[in-house]
Amino acid sequence: MPPAIALWLDTRDPAVIRHGHALVERLGCVLRHDPPPPAPGCLLHLDDTGLSLRDASASHSPGIRGAPPTLDLRPGRGDGLRRQPLGRAIGRTGATVIDATAGLGRDAFMLAAMGHRVNAIERSPVLVQLLIEGWSHALAETPALASVLTRIELREGDARAMLPACVPAPDVVYLDPMYPPKRKASALAPMRVRLVRGLVGDDPDAEELLAIARRAARTRVVVKRPHHAPPLAEPVAGSVKSKLVRFDIYPPAPPNPTPA
Questions:
Q1: Which of 23, 153, 202, 256 is deepest in the core (most CB within 10 A)?
Q2: 20 vs 87: CA distance, rounded Å
Q3: Are 51 and 130 in contact (CB under 8 A)?
Q4: Is 249 helix (H, G, I), strand (E, B) or coil?
Q5: How far apart are CA 126 and CA 26, in angstroms?
Q6: What b/e sequence results for 108-133 when a residue is b if at least 16 CB atoms lie within 10 Å of its CB, and e otherwise?
Q7: Alpha-carbon distance 201 to 23, whole Å?
Q8: How far apart are the C-alpha atoms of 194 and 206, rounded to whole Å?
Q9: Is 227 left (phi over 0), alpha (psi -120 to 50) or beta?
């Protein structure tokens, strides 16, 4: 079991202090009222502006929040998103999609902005809390986001157990498993990727999750991979490529033969 993450409660606001204590209770955090000493891994920082995930080796550096990506949400702009590689890989408009590795929710938000109904599953309670708070804060500042966020249902849990229980079955299951970084020192991953990896590690069960997803999806499973990474499994039915990543497409698994 990984060590408990520290929560630096950096505020004098009584309401924020109460919220911080509630987070300690929910997430099992180690409460800090002052900057923790530099250490490997991540820490949570809560102040009057909200909750963020930071690098524990540099606690005063900027962190990441669960805020949705900035998109043009004017009517008709979803058509442009659907023409992007992710949209082409997912397929038809208005699909029901399970994002089984929600992470910081960026892809789930983009899928909802395209017009899909999205069930976002994340097994890290810390990432789920970041999403809850980030989306709530963004919605308070930009009420127009409601048109997208109401198409997302966020659920905490292990997708390997949750996918087989989904009724009705989703049209598409989307996976974006963590993968080992490039070995070249020059290929530094974005801060959000490095922090999430520091929090949850890689996904050694990704192949198992793919097999379960193929049994759950009605039309396809889409797996996001960097160009340097091999397919999660073979054979791949097709791929849609972007500048930095590709989206591998797998058909549903054939049904188990009926016993004679």
A1: 23
A2: 38
A3: yes
A4: strand
A5: 9
A6: bbbbbbbbbbbbbbbbbebbbbbbeb
A7: 22
A8: 18
A9: alpha
pTM, 2 dp: 0.91
Q: What is the pLDDT along the chain (260 residues), one digit of tens a residue?
A: 567 899 999 999 999 999 999 999 999 999 999 988 888 889 999 999 999 999 998 878 888 999 888 876 666 665 677 789 999 999 988 899 999 999 999 999 999 999 999 999 999 999 999 999 999 999 999 998 999 999 999 999 999 999 999 999 999 999 999 876 665 544 456 788 889 988 998 888 999 999 999 999 999 999 999 998 999 999 999 999 999 899 999 999 987 765 55
**Residue closest to 95 by CA, chosen among 118, 127, 75:** 118
Say if residues 121 and 99 touch (Cβ distance below 8 Å): yes
**Side chain identity, residue 56:** A
Q: What is the largest CA-CA distance in the chain?
A: 70
**Cα–Cα distance between 24 and 21 in angstroms, integer?**
5
Contact 165, 129 (CB under 8 A): no
DSSP code at position 145: G
Q: How many CB atoms lie within 10 A of CB 151?
A: 19
115: tokens are 């017009």
| Three-state SS sequence of 29-55 | CEEECCCCCCCCCEEEEEECCEEEEEE
Question: Residue 142 — φ and ψ, nearest 5°?
Answer: -135, 85
Interhelix angle 125-141/14-27, rounded to 10 degrees, is 150
Residue with token string 């009420």 = 143
Report in angstroms the alpha-carbon separations of 87 from 82, 108, 226, 260: 4, 12, 17, 42
